[in-house]
Amino acid sequence: MDITGADYARDVPLTDHNGQKRSLQDFRGKVVVVFFGYTQCPDVCPTSMQELAEVKQMLGKDGDRLQGIFVTVDPERDTPEVLKAYMANFDPSFLALSGSPEQIAAVAKDFKIYFKKVDGKTATSYTMDHSAGSYVYDTAGRLRVYNRYGSGAQALGADVRALLQRGKAGHLRPPPFGPLFGPLFGPLFGLDLLCVDHRAQHARIGLDALGQPFGRGAGHLPALLKQLVAHLRAAGNGAEQRR
Ligand SMILES: [Cu+2]
Predict the structure, then answer these.
(1) 179 and 102 part of one domain
(2) Higher pLDDT, 202 or 229
(3) pLDDT at 221 exceeding the cut of 50
(4) Which CATH number fits the domain that encloses residue 137?
(5) Tens digits of residue pLDDT in 89-147
(6) How far is the CA of 18 from the centre of ligand 1 (A)?
(7) How far is the CA of 102 from the centre of ligand 1 (A)?
(8) Which residues on adjacent β-strands are paired with residue 207?
(9) What range defines the domain where residue 210 resides?
(10) Taking the model in full, what pTM does it have?
(11) What is the distance in A from the centroid of ligand 1 to the CA of 88?
(12) 34 burial level (CB within 10 Å; 0-12, 13-18, 19+)
């Protein structure tokens, strides 16, 4: 959905799997899709990266103007070698970014990405809960689209194509709730948390990692916000239900 003008998810000051420090500035002239995950993720991450690879193929020769970026939330196990091999599974041009746990936490916070380690049977068999949407930037490096997990390659591909054609706003998927609430609450409702709360079997919507509602103006409209969250919960948010 179109989130043009959102004032978060500003940059990814991390290091790629080749050891190069990265910034969104590096990819001017390309449409950039940023996704957070971890290589041992059983389904959501591979599905998302596969979709992104499909989008690149769909674009034909314009595919060279799409930069896929994977930010690991599991730097402990996702070494540069592991990340490089993982990207090669999907598209060797995609870049995986990592950093210190503190750096990754800071970037995730700016992206309103939630992640949390979930202990497994052994010290190394843990899983990571994490938000599963992706962010799309236009060729000038501006944040334009939030792509909800499960939207499919066609929908994402259409937005990427629109952005490559200089991204007239009307051509992007509109946020829910129309022109009045859309710009205010679009980002809020886009940021459903997936891959999250496996045990609780629900995805929280429009709440940040600390459980606070977010979205511009949200603090001034708590009642309306609550109502809208309830509405979305009742309507189902397309979130993956696990186990
Ligand atoms: Cu995942």
Answers:
(1) no
(2) 229
(3) no
(4) 3.40.30.10
(5) 999 999 999 999 999 999 999 998 889 999 989 988 899 988 888 999 999 899 998 88
(6) 22
(7) 20
(8) 213
(9) 175-237
(10) 0.73
(11) 17
(12) buried
